[in-house]
Amino acid sequence: MTAVPVEHGLILAGALFVLGMLGVLVRRSIIFMLLSVEIMLNAAGVAFVVAGSRWQQPDGQVMFIFILAVAAAEVSVGLALAIRMYHKLKTLDTNAAGRMKG
Amino acid sequence: MNDLFYISAVVAVISTGIVITKLNVVHALLYLIVSLLAVAMVFLSLGAPFVAALEVIIYGGAIMVLFVFVIMLLNLGPEHIEEKKQYVGGQAWLGPVVLAGILIAELVSVFVRGGGQVAGNVVIEPKQTGIALYSIYLIGVELASMLLLSGLIGAYHLGRKDDKLDAGEDGGGQQ
Amino acid sequence: MIAMNDMLWIMPAAPFAGFLVLALAGSRLPRKWIAAVGAGSVGLSMFAALFAGCSFMSAPPGMHAYVQVLRTWIDVAGFSPKIAFYLDPLSVIMVLVMTVVGFLIHLYSAGFMRDDEGYARFFAYMNLFVGSMLTLVLAEDLLLLYLGWEGVGLCSYLLIGFWYKDEVNGYAARKAFVVTRVGDTAFAIGLFLLYSNLGTLQIQELMYRAGQQWAPGSVLAVAAAALLLGGAVGKSAQLPLQTWLPDAMAGPTPVSALIHAATMVTAGVYLIARTHVLFTLAPAVQAAVAVIGAATLLLAGFSALVQSDLKRVLAYSTISQIGYMFLALGVGAWSAAIFHFMTHAFFKALLFLGAGMVIISLHEEHNMFKMGGLRTQLPLVYRTFVIGALSLSALPLLTAGFYSKDLILWEVWSSKSGGPLLWAAGLAGALLTSLYSFRMVFITFFGEAKTKAGGKPGMSMSVPVVILAVLSVAGGFVEVPVHFFTGFLAPAFPPVQSANKAAGEIILQIIAGIVSVSGIVLAWFLFLRSPHYDKTLSQSGFGSLVHRLWFAGWGFDRLYDVLIIKPFLWAAKVNRDDFIDLIYLGVVWTSAGINRFLTFTQSGKVRWYVTGVAIGAIVILGIVVLL
Predict the structure, then answer these.
(1) Which ipTM did the prediction report?
(2) Nearest to C603 among A21, A33, A101 (CB)
(3) Which CATH number among 3.40.50.970, 3.40.50.1820, 1.10.8.60, 1.20.120.1200 corresponds to the domain B2-121?
(4) Are C623 and B111 in contact, with CB atoms under 8 Å apart?
(5) For residues C214 and C194, is the Cβ–Cβ distance under 8 A?
(6) Is residue A82 part of a domain?
(7) Residue A99 within a domain
(8) Three state DSSP letters for C230-273
(9) How far apart, in whole angstroms, are the C-alpha atoms of residue C354 and residue C332?
(10) Which of B87, B156, C394, C440 could tie A28 with a disulfide, CB 3.0–4.6 Å?
């Protein structure tokens, strides 16, 4: 089996993470923001798997499983919030939910 | 296998880029699934077949289905596309792109200092992963189960159609 | 035979118990009970003191002292001061004088304060005072002594300002408190110095270690003695901290008699006598004690000569007489100082109580020049007052004052550290003393009556005065002719270092006697026979200047006003805006500004927060990359 340099794997993870961050920053719809957060979590998982592969240990994969659990919990609560927000404000624009400003 | 990694990586990055720029949420969701499948291929090429399968099943399957359900529930059809156009203006991209550019530059400059380490030499079997998960990470498993339980309860509580909850929020905020 | 060692605590405990009863339940008790508790508790402590004194004389204890250790106060890192009482010949004398005079004055107060609304409060304070004073003189440890020292200072403050509704009294009380605080601070620093260098505050151990470890005249010994002297000077109203005592006469007269004449103001004398080893190790400071005493007795004597307020005359006289005690201490005549303390307590308390009766029967009249001719109206007061004045003037052979003052003068003359100069100052002071004493007597009791005296003093006031009059005469015979008093004190003090025996004691006694009598005659001539000499003298240009200067106590008040109070007030005025506070206000403003800035970031927009997180991540990563 041919090997991939660790830097390339990590650069992939970084690229996915930055794209996810870009999505969170740019989009206003809460659905798109949740999608982008998923991308970022996934990118973190990529970084873990790359690191686990480099050390030839299963720990990276275990961490990915934990990230999966976190992503599942986060998405379920986040989407429930989105539904409630849509019912209440009749829009998905997060700027409309700025009532809690200091 | 080396080629598999690079092809999958390029596919993942491109499809992710489309996800964050697409106006139609359903299309964006489909591109995200493509991206997740590509990442699954990356995992396979790095010698992690177990998480590659989990990526497809849980991310590409369960979580994305949840998104689809919500989009259907909120009835976000093509009529929302016009509304979104105002959100995705050219001005709004400038700052975030600069920030993202700086961040990726920093990350790359950190990564390239690593110097010649390689990944994906060995395939780590699901058995090894399972043993690690249920021995040294047992408390982590318990915590994850607690987290999923609280996520379940939170989603149930927030998601039910309860007029009292809305009334309470109105009463608290608007008086 | 009851073990005296276990009985010492009764002396201070009885007045403290009386204080507690009166302070807690005083307002609900009938007046008779208040007087009974107030005087009775001091009476109990007097009987304990008499008993202790008798058993001390009949069977002197080993080491010439009873010691009773009650308990350890605190025990921290080798510092374990004890609450312990120590009764040696010196404290026997102090305790006896304090309880006897204190009991008589309490008895007198029962009549004197009869119509005052603060009856219970008065006796509560007085009992607290007596308890603190006994703690002071019985303390075996300098820390406990300091507790009593501050306790009597507090009581002095409370009792000077007893009639607190008059603003002037409150001012006098504050002045007394603040001025003595200067001395007390020096005293406290002295304690720190002693402890840090000798490692104990237990007086006997301390004196022993000081004698072992410090060479005579060493810097530490001089510093420690000077700091203790500072405390003594403040408490005993000596130069330069004497200014509070004349104003302290704002309190009720029994208070002036007990606290500001007989007992508390002599605490400084006691302190120096108690720590005499330190002063012997620091000859320079001891010489300073003598000089301070001589200067004070002269300055205060001159001031007493021109006062018009009866009580102020007595106040300056007290300062002057304590000056004699300091003079004696300064030449190493420890026993003579204590002897004069005792006789002074008798006759000065007598004079104050007599003055109190004059004042109360003339309806709060303090000005001597509005009195006169009281000889026939208040015969008992007149007779006892004259006895007191004679004793103060040291009328030869008969009065106690003569024997104590003569002893001081003789030892000042003969001591190695004394000399003709200090002796001459003392002699001039003696002339002044008899002059102002009989000026007071002649103006108050002779001449034509200017006011009608009110009711006659009752039994409770007459009896103590008569007893004190007897003591003022008889008190001297404990020393002459058998030297019983100095013999009794001999174990506590080293003998006087005599050098100059050339002139015999008899010759000096005759000289002192002549001076004293001539002062009385001069007073008779100046103030009774032909008062116009005094008038013309005090109205001439130079004379009136001197008169004003002396009247104002040599202008010390004005000097301190210019030197200390004015600059302090000026600084306070300049600093009215409290520039140190600006630092704290700056903290407030900064945090308020940061708060405003941070509330601005709290926009409620999720994307805004995410941007913040992203920028934070970039900055942290940037630090990692660049460093």
Answers:
(1) 0.90
(2) A101
(3) 1.20.120.1200
(4) no
(5) no
(6) yes
(7) no
(8) HHHHHHCCCCCCCCHHHHHHHCCHHHHHHHHHHCHHHHHHHHHH
(9) 34
(10) B87
pLDDT at residue C460 greater than cutoff 70: yes
Provide the terminal-to-terminal Cα distance of chain B, rounded to the nearest Å.
Answer: 63
Q: What residue spans of C475-565 are helical by DSSP H?
A: 484-489, 505-523, 531-539, 541-551, 556-560
Contact C49, C137 (CB under 8 A): no
A90/A93 Cα distance (integer angstroms): 9
Residues on chain A touching B68 (C-beta within 8 angstroms): none
Domain parsing of chain B, residue ranges: 2-121, 125-161
C9 pLDDT more than 80? yes
Query: Is 0.90 topped by the overall pTM?
Result: no
Tokens describing residue C300: 């205060």
Return averaged pLDDT per consecutive 10 residues of chain A, 102 residues in all: 79 92 86 91 93 89 93 91 84 74 54
| Chain C touching partners, 3 or more CB pairs below 8 A | A, B
In a domain, A25, yes or no: yes
CA atoms of C403 and C387, how far apart (whole Å)? 15
- What's the CATH number where A32 sits? 1.10.287.3510
Q: Which residues of C touch B100 (CB under 8 A)?
A: 614
Residue B78 token pair: 């093509």
Distance CA C338, CA C142 (A): 20
User: Which of the four pLDDT bands, split at 50, 70 and 90, describes residue B174?
Assistant: very low
Optimal mutation site among C620, C621, C624, C626, interface B, most CBs of chain B within 10 A? C621
* Rounded Cα distance, C369 and C308, in Å: 7
Q: What is the pLDDT of residues C29-56, one digit of tens each?
A: 888 888 888 889 999 999 888 888 888 8
In which domain, by residue range, is A24 found? 6-90
Are B149 and A82 spatial neighbours (Cβ–Cβ below 8 Å)?
no
For residue A101, tell me if it sits in a domain.
Answer: no
> Is the Cα dihedral B138, B143, B149, B155 positive or negative?
negative
- What is the pLDDT averaged over residues C297-305? 87
